[in-house]
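Board notes (copied after class):
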Amino acid sequence: MTAQHGFTSAILLAAGVSRRMGTLKALLDWQGRSLIIHQIVSLREAGADEVIVVLGHRADELQARIGVNREVYDLGRVRCVTNEDYAQGKTTSIKTGLWALGPSPDPDAAILMLNVDQPRSVGIIQQTLAAHRNGNDSLITIPTYQGKGGHPIIVSRRLYGELIAIDEQTQGMRAITERHRDCTQRVELGAAELLWDVNTPEQYQAALRASGAG
């Protein structure tokens, strides 16, 4: 196994309108703090060297919330960028985050991608990062639970040129993972939280109960 210890950048997608939830998901309470702050803290404590937060709907409000909590939670290297075209689909937010990162000369550098409405613990992010860093030169790492692909997904910065070219018509990230199936490792972590996705009030309450916080 070849250990990869390059710089890890996390892209946290938080640009959506939250129509199905009925209230802004980024501001939902999760373990005593807003979900967006929980996600940033988890990513940083798990080992992400920097976090790029992609905002869109109510961007100013969320950026202010992050600013207020920067010192409270020692958020460290966190940058906010705004996707003015967020209504056109998730790929526009991914690309906004990628433009903020730019290409990297480090072949071991990696990009971790996570949505704000996918609450993850420090431990599960650490396990996913460790799997990628020890992944025998895999370009993509997808954690799984009972065979189902979950999040966060980690992608080598060597694929930056292909990532920046994704669009909704070609199924976004799915096209990348299909193209590089032979260089993608799927790692079973045995954690149901890998599949948590709080799009609706019912999913939010179910995830709260499963986390022990409900």
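Comment from the instructor: DSSP finds seven helices and ten strands in the chain. Residues 35-46 form the longest helix (12 residues).
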